[in-house]
Design the sequence.
C-alpha cells in the first residue's frame, strides 16, 4: 500500500511533458510593483512637545537651529526609497520639537523610518512607526522608546523632540535603509498551481509606441512601434502555500537580457519550481518610460 501511495503522489506532482492551460496573468504592466511616491507628502514645522507628555525634559533640541529630517516608508518586504521625503526646518527660539505632518500615504506602506540631524550632519535614525501609530499621532522624546505617549498629539502628526546626537548612529543612506525593496504583491492576482510542480513564465516586453516618428518617416501606414532606447526589465516570482496562507516567498529574480546580443529578444520563457503553491509574478524594474510588459503562465 505504501508503494502504491508513493506512485500516486508522483503521478500528480511530477513535471508534465505537456503544458497546462495558459493563464494570462498580467497585461500592459507599465509601472513596477513597488511602493510609488504618488501624492505622498511630509511637511515639517517648528513646534513643541505637547504639554503633559511624561518623561519629557525641555531644551533637548536647540531653538533657532536648523534641523534636517528624512522619512523613508517601509513594508514587510523592505524600504520604499522611491517614496522617500526629506527637508529642513528652523526651530523657533522657544520651540523644542520638529513636527512632521503626513498625508496621502501610498498603497502598500506599513510604516515609516524617521531620521533627524542638526544641520549640516547627515540625518540619523531616531524612530520607526507603523502607519496606524502615525495616523493616531505620536510624540518622540526618547530614542526608539518602547512606548509612545499619545497625550495631546494630533492625528497624522509626529512630534520629534529627541536630540539626534543621542540617537543610534545609523545613517539613512546605508543598508538596510537604502535598498528599494518595498514590493506590492497585491498588484497582481495570484494563480492557483495546486497539483503542479513547475510553471513556465512567459514574458513579453512591448516596445515604446511613438506614432509621431512613424508619421514623419512615411505617413500613418508606417510602423508605429519604435524602440527609442534599449529596454530593461526584471521580474520576481513570489510563491505562497495556499490562497489564505501568510506571506509570499521570493523565488529567483530574473533580469531579462533584451537585445544585448544576437538571440536576446524581447520575448522570454522561464521555468520555475512552484510545488503546488500560489504564484504571482511582479515586475521590479522597467525602462524606458512607455515600455509595457505582458506575463503569461503555463502550469507544467
Sequence:
Amino acid at each position: 500500500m505504501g508503494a502504491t501511495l508513493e506512485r500516486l503522489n508522483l503521478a500528480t506532482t511530477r513535471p508534465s511533458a505537456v503544458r497546462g492551460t495558459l493563464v494570462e496573468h498580467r497585461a500592459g504592466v507599465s509601472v513596477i510593483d513597488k511602493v510609488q511616491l504618488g501624492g505622498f507628502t511630509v511637511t515639517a514645522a517648528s513646534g513643541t512637545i505637547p504639554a503633559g507628555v511624561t518623561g519629557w525634559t525641555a531644551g533637548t533640541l536647540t531653538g533657532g537651529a536648523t534641523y534636517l529630517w528624512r522619512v523613508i516608508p517601509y513594508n514587510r518586504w523592505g524600504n520604499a526609497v522611491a517614496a522617500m521625503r526629506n527637508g529642513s526646518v528652523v526651530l523657533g527660539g522657544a520651540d523644542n520639537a520638529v513636527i512632521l505632518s503626513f498625508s496621502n500615504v501610498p498603497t502598500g506602506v506599513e510604516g515609516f523610518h524617521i531620521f533627524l540631524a542638526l544641520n549640516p550632519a547627515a540625518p540619523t535614525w531616531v524612530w520607526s512607526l507603523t502607519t496606524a501609530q502615525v495616523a493616531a499621532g505620536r510624540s518622540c522624546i526618547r530614542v526608539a522608546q518602547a512606548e509612545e505617549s499619545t497625550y495631546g498629539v494630533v492625528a497624522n502628526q509626529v512630534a520629534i523632540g529627541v536630540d539626534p546626537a543621542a540617537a543610534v548612529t545609523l545613517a539613512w543612506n546605508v543598508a538596510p535603509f537604502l535598498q528599494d525593496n518595498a514590493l506590492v504583491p497585491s498588484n497582481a492576482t495570484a494563480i492557483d498551481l495546486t497539483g503542479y510542480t513547475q510553471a513556465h513564465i512567459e514574458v513579453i516586453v512591448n516596445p515604446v509606441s511613438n506614432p509621431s516618428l512613424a508619421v514623419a518617416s512615411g505617413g500613418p501606414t508606417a510602423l508605429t512601434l519604435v524602440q527609442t532606447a534599449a529596454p530593461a526589465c526584471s521580474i520576481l516570482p513570489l510563491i505562497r502555500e495556499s490562497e489564505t496562507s501568510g506571506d509570499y516567498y521570493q523565488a529567483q529574480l530574473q533580469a531579462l537580457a533584451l537585445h544585448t546580443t544576437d538571440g536576446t529578444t524581447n520575448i522570454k520563457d522561464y521555468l520555475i519550481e512552484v510545488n503546488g503553491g500560489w504564484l504571482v509574478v511582479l515586475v521590479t524594474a522597467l525602462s524606458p518610460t512607455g515600455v509595457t510588459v505582458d506575463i503569461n503562465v503555463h502550469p507544467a
Q: What stands out?
A: The radius of gyration is 25 Å. Residues 2-13 form the longest helix (12 residues). The chain has two domains: 15-33+183-299, 41-166.
